[in-house]
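Hey, can you fold this one?
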Amino acid sequence: MVNGLRTDRMKLVRKMVMSGVVSGLMASASVLCFPSASMALSELQGSEKVAEQPAASSATPKEPAAKEPATKEPAAKEPAAAPQATSPAAQPNLSNPKETNKITATDTKHAAIEVMYDMNKAPEAVRKMREKLMEAASSGEPEKLRALLSEGAEPTALALGSDNGDPIATIKSVSGDPDGIEVLAIMMDVLNAGFVHVNAGTPDDAYVWPYFAEKPLNTLTLREKVELLRIVTAGDYENMLDAGNYNFFRIGISPDGKWKFFTAGD
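Sure. Predicted structure:
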């Protein structure tokens, strides 16, 4: 009897245990299954969203509006003024040294000048001094020039390359002969040439013989060349072309009739 009751209780306990186990298993199964289903749905929804994003990004993006440059381009500079053309006559021939030296004489110092032969165009005082110089030179006596020399604050300038202390001795020193005859002859040739008036209204105002001293030698006409060769030799003329200017004897008389200078060289 007792054994039968124990057996029934044991069966009941086993049944209860088994039913509890089954219930536990079913609960566990529901926990395991439903979350996985919900995760699958969320994953599906997430995948749909991810799929939508490439579609949106696949649309061609709009190009950004062109930005205006930060700085304005500088205004175009005006082209530099073209150099003024010069006439061929004003340009030296570099292949010919003599021609180049000729052009150097045509500077502002040698502006257009009036060559004069008529002594009436000179002041009376100038005419008288010229006549006195001609008379002294034609006499053949250099000493007669002494009375015509200016003294005092503005003495006659004798730039003849040497100074012997005495003006007449200085004049004779440039003559080819010991008596000074040659230099007197040269003075006469110089005073018989044309003349020019230079530096008017200044302390250097003077009437100058010969006019070659103030005129570019490369501008001489044939007649003027003949006149020049009465004073210098052909060799002297060529040397002057090389130097660029007349460099022989010249005489100057001031407007008030004073013998201003007797010089030679540049």
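Helices lie at 2-57, 97-104, 124-138, 167-173, 181-191, 222-228, 234-243. Let me know if you want another pass with a different chain boundary.
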